[in-house]
Structures are given as structure tokens and as C-alpha cells.
Write a structure and sequence with these properties.
single chain, mainly alpha
Amino acid sequence: MHKKVWQLAAPIILANMTVPLLGAVDIAVVGHLPGPQFMAAVGIGATIFSALYFGFVFLRMGTTGLVAIAYGGDNHHESTAWLIRSILIAIILGLLLIIAKPIISNICFYFIHPEGESLALAQQYFSIRIFSAPAALCNFALLGWMIGQHKTKQALYTQLILNITNIILDIYFVVNLKLGVPGAAYATVIAEYIGLGYGLFLSYQAIKLYFSQVAIAELLRIDKLKKLASINNNIFIRSLCLQMALFYFTMTGATFGDTVLAVNAVLINFQLFMAYGLDGFANAAEALVGESIGKRQHKNFIKTLKVTALWSVLFAIIFTLVYALFWHPIVLLLTNVNTVILLAQQYIAWLILLPLLSVWSFWLDGVFIGATQTKPMRNSMIVSLIIFVALCLTLTPTWGNHGLWCAFSVFMLIRAITLGSALPRLIHKF
């Protein structure tokens, strides 16, 4: 089981670790432009799109669980059907986001209203990057299918193509062509569509085989659509609450001025790098839990829980040690603005602590997604969000940005406690 977990997790870890580069590279490139307003603008823009796209992360999570169970039951036509259904939904939702661009922009910048030039730059970034929506959402569906099918190397290749393209175009547009913040947005849009094209290329044979052997009407079966809707609705609410927490984090940080906003934009990347790294074992848990349920193998289900939990905790400890020892070089990679670097060191202790607090909720998410039991995830996140906002309102008037990071740390801990309380019932059910 250890070998099997690593065969799945290693490519996912590498793939997931490249995902935050979409935002981190943007920040790193503009972070070397004069003044914090450029970095603050991209930080705001990246946060908005994180909220938007993670609000639709059910296209990845829901697809993984359903595909993994079909894969465990050797029903390959059904696993491909879940992919096609998710891609169709992704295209529709992506186009709707583009149509609703003015409304979304007004709402976001009403709540996050940075000072002076940062606002205009952030609005520029948003108005360009929104056109990546259909590609970004389709990539979620493709990634979920690949993980559920245990094709994690394909997931790695797709993410590498996407992010390498983003890095090259970022440097070319921002540094060579001097396009500034709009250049960072253009780079990400183009990279998303290139990543989508490559993902479709890798899944072409499975999709072609499905349409050659199964009637199109099978895709629109009411019972299948209801099941997909039920799972996705819970994950959507869960993801929306998570992104509301991150949005509220950024909104509160914006009240402390551009420098603190820039610091938080840099430091939140520590959490993102760690989250995507630990999600490798959570994603392995999704695939293996779903497979065990599809094959009705309870012993494998229990083994999966133990082994993926063990490796998740070990990696959380590694992240804590790396952050404690090398936080300064990591910050320097993201910015050379002295005021940001000096202020960032005041908050590093929170980043060192967060991996040990966050690991449990990441792992539990993987377990419940693989089992397609998404209602406990929804309920856990609702409770955690309420407590987070209450703590922000209580702590930030006295502790300022330290209070904000403290509230965020407790938020991650409450997620683990509330979702962990539902684990015994899940084990008993299967």
C-alpha cells in the first residue's frame, strides 16, 4: 500500500506544486518592478481568481470520486461519461463567468478596495484573465478524471505544460515587452488554453471510444445528472465558504495598507505551496478510497486511511522545517522590495505553524471526496467560516495583521476537528 500510495502521490505532488506558480510567478515577476502597488494588484487579482475558480473546484473533486468508484468497478465507459458531463458543465459555467464579468468585477472590487494605483492595476488584471475561465474549469474536470483513473503521470504532464508556458510568457511579456500587470494576465490566459489543449489530447482516445460505443443519450440520464448535481452542490458550498474565508482574509488585510497587503500576498504563497504539496496524498486517498469502495474492499479502505494519513503528517513536518530554516530565501524569490521583506519576518511564525494545523483537513477532504460523501465537508466548512469571521472581528482590532493570521490558523484547525468528527461514521458505513 505504501508503494501504491507513492505511485499515485508522487506525480500529483509534483503537479500540484506547480499550480501555485500561476499566481506566484506573476507576483515574483511584478515583485521586481518598482513599488509595492504592482505586487499588491496581482495579489488581489490572483486571490479573486482563486475564489472564482475554487468555487467551481467541484468539477475536479466530484469528477475524481465518481470516476474512482467507476474505475474500481471496471466500468470504463461510465468513468469517461463522468468526464464528458463535467467538461460540458465546465464550458457552460466558464462562458457564464465571462458574460458576468462586469457584475463580478463590481462586487469583488467593492469589497476589496485597495489604495490608489493598486485598484486600477488589479481591475486591468481581472478584465484580461477572466477570459481563461472556460479553459481553467475544463482543466479541473480533466484533472479529476486523470486522478480517478490513476493516471497521475498524465496529470503531472498537463500541469507542467501549463505552468512552464505561464513562466516563459510571464517573463517575456512583463520583462521583455514591459507590459507590466496586463502582461502577467495575458500569460496566464494563454497558458490555461495550452494546458487544456494538451489535456484533451491525452484523453482523446477514451472520449473517442466512448462515443463510438455508447449512445449520447446516456450522458443525459436523469439519475446520473441528479447524482452529479447532489455531489457538486455540496462541494460548491464547501468551496465557496473556503474562498469566502480567503477573500475575507485579503479584504481584511487590505485595510492595513498596501505594504501589509503585499506582505500577505507573498506569505499566502507559503500556505498554497504547502497545501498543493499535501494535497498529493489527499488526491491519492481520493483515488484509492474510491477504488476500494468500487471493489467493495473494506480492508483496503482502512489501509488507505492509515497509509495516506501517515505520509501526509510526515510531509507536513517537512514543510514546517523547510519554512523555519529557509523562509528568508523563499521570500527573496518572490520580492526584492525591502519594506515588504522586513515586515514579512514578523509573521513567519504563523507560516511555520500552519502545516501542522492544516494537514488534517487536507487529508480528510481526500477521504470524503473519494467516498463521494460531500455533505460532511459542506457542514464542516460552514462552521469553520463562521468561527473564522468571528475571530477576525474579535482579534484584528487589537492584534492587527497578527490577529488575522491567528484567526486563519484557528480556521484550519476547526476544519480538521469538525470533519474528523464525521470520520467514524464514514468508516462504519463502508
